[in-house]
Write a structure and sequence with these properties.
7 strands; Rossmann fold; about 325 residues; seven-stranded parallel β-sheet; binds NADP nicotinamide-adenine-dinucleotide phosphate; 12 helices; alpha/beta
Length: about 325
């Protein structure tokens, strides 16, 4: 009986693997629009798709990012200046894309741009800290998608949203997890809404990878900035050791978990764009597959216990 079930599982995996190897044809006609191409996953994906022969429209936040990307890619990659928090900028780029892609429409948009600071305990943050990050990580995703959705419907194309494992489980305070849970919700409703039009919607939920988002120097300096601006009564409630202990935990956790192979994420993005049968969700990274996602399915009493055991040192009460 056990061998029979094992055999069925093996056949299911082989069938799935075969189905997922098939790719779309005419890559040269399929424009892909990516946000946040200055660095990290977006930058690598833009270069990778350019090599594979897809025409790429790479949204860059800075002029430096645009210039550096242009130097290393062919002329089928077009860079555009894009700030996803500014609707004028988003609409200007959408108009450029409309004239570039013509009647064929846009094959795919990859909502990749994102930020990870400020992050910290909830009562260290202000509502403006929340609004600032939600503007990039969540409203930016929605605004960019809406700006090109009709062009994607025309091509029966793809929307690829970059969320995170922290769109599935929320072990630290601040707007990052809130924004990524929002991306998951937007992604799932869009996937259902667009099915009728032949548009496929995929969500990428990476674990920890080495990019600016996980730059420990940046995160630690920002924690120090947040602590320095706190009123004395909040500082007193946490105690003198808390900041140093938090910084120690950041170093410890990030060195344990962060993966340097960004291609694991980029390959999932590429599959979502180029496979005939893309998946609804991709979870690149061992920590995502074997720690964060299984933990997200467990009862809160178990996940809370694990997180509470690993908290920084508070003042004795
Ligand atoms: N690295 C990880 O472990 C990890 C894990 C899960 C999910 N993610 C997600 O993956 C995505 C890509 O991040 P990454 O890890 O590759 O980090 P990254 O290198 O910092 O990439 C983020 C990109 O977004 C750009 N950006 C920031 N604000 C923007 C704005 N207002 N408008 C347009 N672009 C803007 C950044 O430009 P500048 O560089 O010029 O600021 C940068 O190019 C993010 O959504 C992130 O949340 C990352």
């Amino acid at each position: 009986m056990f061998l029979y079930i094992l055999g069925l599982v093996a056949v299911w995996f082989i069938c799935r693997w075969y189905r997922e190897t098939k790719r779309v044809s005419n890559k040269g006609d399929k424009y892909v629009y990516i946000t946040g191409c200055d660095s990290g996953f977006g930058n690598l994906l833009a270069k990778h798709l350019n090599k594979l022969g897809f025409p790429v429209i790479a949204g860059c936040y800075t002029e430096k990012g645009e210039n550096e990307l242009k130097k290393t890619t062919s002329d089928t990659l077009t860079t555009v200046h894009l700030d996803v928090t500014d609707s004028d900028s988003v609409n200007r780029v959408a108009a450029q894309i409309k004239s570039l892609v013509g009647e064929k429409g846009l094959w795919a948009v990859v909502n990749n741009a994102g930020v990870a600071v400020p992050s910290g305990p909830t009562d260290w943050l202000t509502i403006d800290d929340y609004k600032g990050m939600l503007a990039v990580n969540l409203c930016g995703v929605i605004d960019v998608t809406l700006s090109v959705l009709q062009l994607i419907k025309k091509a029966k194309g793809r929307v690829v949203n970059v969320a995170s494992v922290f769109g599935r489980i929320s072990p630290f305070g601040g707007p990052y997890c809130v924004s990524k849970y929002g991306v998951e919700a937007f992604n799932d409703s869009l996937r259902i809404n667009m099915a009728h039009f032949g548009v496929k919607v995929a969500c990428i939920e990476p674990g920890f990878f080495r990019t600016n988002v996980t730059d420990t120097m940046l995160l630690k300096n920002d924690l120090k900035r947040l602590w320095a601006r706190l009123p004395q009564d909040i500082k007193d409630s946490y105690g003198d050791q808390y900041l140093a202990s938090t910084i120690e935990k950041v170093d410890e956790r990030f060195s344990q978990l962060t993966d340097g192979n960004l291609m694991k994420v980029v390959s999932c993005m590429e599959h979502a764009i180029s496979a005939l049968h893309p998946r609804a969700r991709y979870s690149p990274g061992w920590d995502a597959k074997f720690f964060w996602l299984p933990l997200s399915y467990m009862p809160s009493c178990i996940s809370d216990r694990i997180f509470l055991k690993n908290l920084p040192k508070y003042k004795e009460t």
